[in-house]
Design goal:
By secondary structure, this protein is of the alpha+beta class. Helices cover about 35% and strands about 20% of the residues. It contains three helices and five strands, in the order H-E-E-H-H-E-E-E. It has a three-stranded mixed beta sheet with strand order 1-2-3. Strands 4-5 form a two-stranded antiparallel ribbon. Helix 2 packs across helix 3. It starts with a helix and ends with a strand.
Length: about 100
């Protein structure tokens, strides 16, 4: 069973209105919610960009990052819109987004 299938099976019991992003199954990292919110599918921003680079279009890093920023990160399609976690790396001198 794939990660998407497992998450879909679990989330349907908790929130049947939760949505998935097409073609980005490799970027799913789990289920999450805010304190009083309903559970939603959670994606990794870094993994989304990596998926865009590996996908049929084979985007380079800059194009994938731009596509992510303009078409995915800002998308809201209702209360079932997935959560995207920005991955942070703690560097030697600062904190930065991957």
């Amino acid at each position: 069973m794939s990660v998407r299938e497992e998450i879909d099976e679990m989330i349907q019991e908790m929130n049947p209105d939760a949505m998935f992003m097409d073609g980005l199954d490799d970027a799913i990292i789990g289920i999450g919610c805010q304190y009083t919110g309903t559970p939603l599918v959670v994606y990794s921003a870094t993994k989304i960009i990596e998926s865009l680079m590996k996908g049929d279009d084979g985007m380079d890093y800059e194009t994938a990052q731009e596509h992510y920023g303009f078409n995915i990160a800002c998308a809201y399609v209702g209360e079932g819109t997935p959560i995207i976690v920005e991955d942070w790396i703690i560097g030697k001198s600062s904190l930065s987004v991957v």
